[in-house]
Structure formats: structure tokens, C-alpha cells
Design brief:
By secondary structure, the protein is mainly α. Helices cover 67% and strands 0% of the residues. The chain folds into 2 domains: 7-113, Up-down Bundle (Four Helix Bundle (Hemerythrin (Met), subunit A)); 131-258, Four Helix Bundle (Hemerythrin (Met), subunit A), CATH 1.20.120. It is elongated, with a radius of gyration of 23 Å.
Length: 262
């Protein structure tokens, strides 16, 4: 089945890559004619015009990037390539390398991230967590909360437990990524620790100063999700999920505020 794409951000990405290529071509010609991109000459002025256009396209793309499940490190990689292309200081070869990396990243990572996800049931209520709590944060966070509420409403409590666990894991990783501290929650191979270790590290990290309810809630949410996902004889019930909902609300508020997402 062909996956549908969100056309507007795809068009913006194509326009950004096109503008970046024009900047590289202009810089190459300026070098060949021994003209500075920082001076008041045809190539310098053209360079400035193209940079202004590119900056406008970047601004238009920012909101769309926030709705994807792209990690902060991927978005930063995209920004680094653009910054090199826009710099008047780097060599032609360095600029061309940045353009190639930008094109590869755009085609293999960014465009697939804008695939329109399949529709899922829209819950009538906010039984697990009010959507308003995460509205305007990031699209993938909103989607997880929507699915958790839909699972609860459909009385699929194992699935609901797993989605709640996933929400906590996402928010913990986002917190460390936003603050540039992701190395603290990765192993030697560069992979993120399992949730139990993430929780232990975060709770012991004095930087966050979690409240008592959050410290108590995180391990309980993790345990419920683990049992629902991995214990073949365990079936989560409404009572089980209800037992972590109040703590979940406090923990989510804590994590969103600390990450500056709310």
C-alpha cells in the first residue's frame, strides 16, 4: 500500500534543498571569479538574497518538524548542514559536502517522517489523560495520549497500559535530549537505556528535583506496562489502569514543564 505524504512540508523540504543548491552554485562561481561572498559585489549580493530566502523557508518548516517523531538530534543535524551552507566562511568543498548530507537526510529521514499515519479511533473522552495537557507539545506525544485514551475507552487495558508506559519513556528521553544531556541515558554503544534505568537515573538526577508523586508514579507505570506487555498470564484491568492515572498526570506535567514543552 502506498503511504500518503503530507504535501506541504515535503514541498518546503524540496524548496530548501533547491535554494541550498543555488547557494552552492553561486559560491562556486564566486570562487572561480575570485569574488568574496562577504563583499558588495554581484556574487556577494546574490548570496545574501538566497540566504534570506532560505531562512524564510526554514521558518515555515519549523512547525511541521515539531509534529513528527524526529529526535532532537536529527533536527539538529538538519540545522547544522544548513548552517554550513549559509556560512560565507567555509570552502566550496565543505559547502558541497553539507549540501550532499542535507539532500541525503531530507530524502531518507525527513520526508518519511512526514508520512500521514493511518487513522486511529478518536476517543470521546479523556479517561487516561486530558489531551489538553499535551496539546501543542509534539505531534507524536499527542498521538500516544490519544491512543491511550482510545484503548481505555475500548476496554483494551493491556494496550492502554503499554501506551502509558510508552508515553513516560518518550517524555523522559525528550527531557534529556532537549536539555542536551542525552549522553547520561545512553550506553557505550550509543543506545538509550531500558526504561527502568531511565527512571532510576532521572529520579536520582538532582537537576530535575521531581516531586514525591512523580518519583512514586514512574516505577508503578513502568511495572504495569511491563506486565501488560510481557506476562502472558497477566491481563490488565480497568482498576489497574485507574491506579496509575493520578500519578501519570502529575508525572507528565513535571516532565513537560522541565523539558520546556509546556
Amino acid at each position: 500500500m502506498v503511504q500518503r505524504m503530507n504535501d506541504q512540508p515535503i514541498k518546503l523540504l524540496d524548496a530548501i534543498c533547491s535554494s541550498a543548491q543555488k547557494i552552492c552554485e553561486n559560491a562556486k562561481t564566486a570562487k572561480r571569479n575570485n569574488k568574496s561572498l562577504k563583499s558588495d559585489n554581484f556574487y556577494g549580493n546574490r548570496f545574501h538574497e538566497l540566504i534570506v530566502k532560505l531562512a524564510g523557508l526554514e521558518t515555515d518548516l519549523v512547525d511541521s518538524l515539531a509534529t513528527t517523531n524526529l529526535s532532537a538530534s536529527r533536527i539538529e543535524e538538519f540545522n547544522v548542514h544548513l548552517a554550513k551552507i549559509k556560512s560565507p566562511e567555509i570552502t566550496v568543498a565543505q559547502r558541497n559536502d553539507a549540501l550532499k548530507n542535507l539532500q541525503i537526510l531530507s530524502h531518507s529521514v525527513l520526508k518519511p517522517a512526514f508520512a500521514i499515519p493511518p487513522a486511529h479511533p478518536t476517543p470521546k473522552g479523556d479517561h487516561v489523560l486530558p489531551l489538553a495537557v499535551v496539546k501543542g507539545t509534539r505531534g507524536y506525544i499527542e498521538n500516544v495520549v490519544t491512543q491511550a485514551n482510545a484503548c481505555y475507552e475500548a476496554r483494551c487495558f493491556d494496550a492502554c497500559s503499554v501506551m502509558i508506559r510508552k508515553l513516560v519513556e518518550i517524555l523522559l528521553i525528550d527531557l534529556y535530549e532537549v536539555k542536551g544531556k542525552q549522553a547520561a541515558i545512553k550506553n557505550g554503544a550509543g543506545d538509550y537505556f531500558m526504561l527502568s534505568d531511565l527512571i532510576n537515573i532521572a529520579i536520582q538526577d538532582a537537576t530535575w528535583n521531581f516531586g514525591r508523586e512523580t518519583k512514586q508514579a514512574l516505577p508503578k507505570i513502568k511495572s504495569l506496562g511491563d506486565r501488560a506487555a510481557h506476562n502472558r498470564r497477566y491481563l490488565a484491568t480497568k482498576t489497574d489502569v485507574d491506579g496509575v492515572i493520578s500519578g501519570l498526570r502529575v508525572a507528565v506535567d513535571d516532565l513537560l514543564h522541565l523539558a520546556g514543552l509546556k
